[in-house]
Design a protein that fits this description.
Chain lengths: 128, 278
């Protein structure tokens, strides 16, 4: 029993390692592509990041997809960043599944609790 | 200054930040915030947002390697992530209401503490007495070493949990990984072996960062123009740093040099915060 459990833990470690690695490579590649497009289109303009300004709609959550179709570099970058933020969240989902396979109820619950906290946090913008 | 020059400056600075962060063990986010705010005059909220994104990248990248080696205690990490994410969400919400110069002063102070903590001697400790709560939560673990598998137990789970709440709060408030505090909590309170505590802390930083990053994203504090060079630069610098660490065994003087760099940056932050320039 103990040997079998350890075997499954090792499987889970391999999968989680793969998820994290792929997530980082994929998202940073998207960020780099977006960066190239952004610099190509706006490289010679003057930046203003001294003060907080309302972001253009194509980098806001519901405008990103449209922004990518319109070939906005910043929309592509933002999509890459969202992928990056999603990577550790995906890791929790995969560990929850792994704990389900191991029949470790306590840690299924703990993984789901952490997911719930992040989900509630991502909803906070709509309330506050 | 054009967007191109601005981006290149951030890219080079972030590369340096990632390098220093990985060599000192402080994490790249730490150095990038003073750089963006003091030297380039970026609003500190944007700087924190960009830093958060970069720590997710570096911690996930290195966690991928550590997890596969089987050193990371995943159950301990998952359990403590309850505390760090709750703390992170509170910290991120709080950051929206704290004036920027106060954020700078708090960040400078934490930065000094963490730099000094990183110089601390690391004593390896293995305890075997059983704590009932750690047993119940299946937190006790083992890790592979060249001389065989080492089993270890964990003590004072409650105390560690409380410190993790605080570590999460700082992470959400300031956009740092607060790895130094996480390691300290696991080492000195929970008696986790050093190798396990550093990798497990690293494992948790990504999730903690994601919990606060969603708040910053919603409020529009993650700016693609700033985050792009920061993420690329910090990741490249951190990767270079880990190569150097593998090759150079005695990086003692290097550590000291960078700790002094960090102390100078931190005092700049506090000074600028006090005179209200940030």
């Amino acid at each position: 029993m103990a040997a079998k459990t350890r075997f499954k833990d090792a499987d889970m470690q391999a999968i989680i390692g793969w998820v994290l690695r792929t997530g980082v490579i994929l998202s940073v590649s998207v960020v780099i592509i977006g960066g190239v497009v952004y610099i190509y289109r706006h490289g010679s303009e003057a930046p203003d990041h001294r003060h907080f300004v309302t972001q253009p709609s194509f980098v806001q959550l519901n405008g990103i997809i449209q922004g990518i179709f319109d070939f906005h570099g910043r929309s592509i970058i933002q999509a890459g960043i969202i992928l990056l933020i999603a990577t550790p969240i995906l890791r929790i989902i995969f560990s929850a599944l792994g704990f389900v396979l191991e029949k470790d109820r306590l840690y299924v619950f703990i993984s789901l609790l952490v997911l719930l906290i992040i989900f509630l946090s991502s909803m906070s913008g709509h309330i506050g | 200054m054009s967007v191109l020059v601005f981006t290149l400056i951030i890219l080079i600075g972030s590369c340096f930040a990632g390098l220093v962060g990985s060599l000192t063990g402080l994490g790249g986010g730490f150095i990038i915030i003073p750089l963006l705010t003091i030297i380039l005059g970026v609003d500190i909220h944007y700087a924190i947002g960009a830093s958060l994104v970069s720590i997710i990248a570096t911690s996930s990248g290195s966690a991928a390697a550590y997890v596969r080696e089987g050193i990371t205690n995943m159950r301990l990490g998952m359990f403590l992530e309850i505390a760090t994410t709750v703390g992170a969400v509170c910290g991120a919400m709080l950051a929206m209401y704290i004036p920027t110069h106060m954020l700078a002063i708090i960040l400078g102070t934490i930065l000094i503490f963490s730099a000094l903590l990183s110089l601390r001697k690391k004593a390896q400790q293995i305890i075997e007495h059983k704590s009932a709560l750690a047993e119940k939560l299946k937190l006790n673990g083992s890790y592979p070493t060249p001389v065989g598998t080492v089993n270890y137990s964990i003590s004072n789970v409650g105390g560690g949990f409380v410190v993790m709440l605080f570590a999460g709060l700082l992470s959400g408030l300031l956009g740092i990984g607060s790895g130094a505090l996480k390691v300290l909590a696991m080492d000195s309170i929970m008696k986790v072996p050093f190798k396990v505590s550093t990798t497990t802390s690293n494992f948790m930083i990504g999730v903690t960062g994601a919990a606060s990053a969603v708040v910053y994203l919603q409020r529009g504090y993650i700016d693609p123009g700033i985050s792009m060079p920061v993420v690329i630069g910090v990741l490249a610098g951190a990767m270079a740093g880990s190569k150097i660490l593998v090759n150079a065994k005695s990086s003692g003087w290097l550590r000291w040099f960078f700790v002094i760099v960090v102390l100078v940056l931190a005092s700049q932050l506090i000074y600028n915060g006090l005179i209200g320039k940030i």
